[in-house]
Specification:
single chain; mainly beta; eight-stranded antiparallel barrel; 15 strands; globular
Length: about 230
């Protein structure tokens, strides 16, 4: 009998521990509203989660509330590199965080930690590297690099904004084994949070000095493993 009770206790503890791990950094339920900090909300498999507007969970990268794995964004991308055109499916694995910069203002950061390119002619030859790629607040200066995990570089939080324009880098690219881009970045990337959250872009892969590179890409990647990813 004692063994059965002990086994039951151990199983209960293990189940609670796994459940707690799965939702680490997220609270169950929608954003409560009324806070001054950004509240990030996601719906996965019919359940809504958030890390709230009180400032809790700040400075931490958040993936899926259920597993901690990356949010997956996927869609068609059209490439033009040195006279060759490619129509591919491009998939990003991404995480999100809110943080307070050195001036005490809230900012939103996104990072892409993995990717996959598949589809038609040449797509399987794409070799992209330089991960993680970080978003950066668009700047007017001629020096765009580095792209790093720095809150001061992320886009300012705007409670009235329906989307966020960012730059994304640093990206290395080789096609058919030929290096084409080193330390490149996308400009004018639009992240639109909400139901069917997505990244949309139509950009050269620019150099650190803002010069145009050998590749241009247009795409629209929508979250596929969550119903929504929202910023309130």
């Amino acid at each position: 009998m004692k063994r059965k009770i002990l086994l039951s206790v151990l199983l209960t503890a293990a189940t609670w521990s796994l459940s707690s791990l799965a939702t680490a950094g997220w609270d169950t339920g929608p954003c409560p509203g009324g806070g001054t900090a950004p509240c990030i909300e996601a719906e996965v498999s019919g359940t809504t989660y958030h890390f709230n507007g009180s400032g809790d969970h700040a400075g931490e990268w958040h993936g899926l509330p259920t597993t901690g794995e990356d949010f997956e964004f996927s869609g068609v991308s059209e490439w033009s590199c040195r006279g060759l055109d490619f129509d591919c499916t491009w998939t990003w694995g991404a995480k999100i965080k809110k943080c307070m910069d050195s001036s005490g203002d809230w900012r939103i950061g996104l990072k892409v930690g993995s990717n996959n390119v598949s589809g038609g002619f040449g797509c399987s030859s794409f070799a992209l590297a330089g991960f993680p790629w970080y978003t950066k607040n668009p700047i007017s200066s001629s020096v765009h690099c580095p792209f790093q995990d720095s809150c001061d570089d992320f886009v300012p939080y705007d409670s009235n904004s329906s989307n966020y324009a960012v730059e994304l880098g640093s990206i290395d690219l080789a096609i058919f084994g030929i290096p084409l881009v080193s330390d490149g970045h996308l400009q004018g990337v639009i992240f639109t949070p909400g139901t069917g959250a997505n990244f949309a872009f139509s950009s050269d892969l620019y150099g650190c000095d803002g010069s145009e590179g050998d590749c241009y890409v247009q795409g629209d990647l929508t979250v596929t493993n969550a119903t929504s990813l929202d910023i309130h």
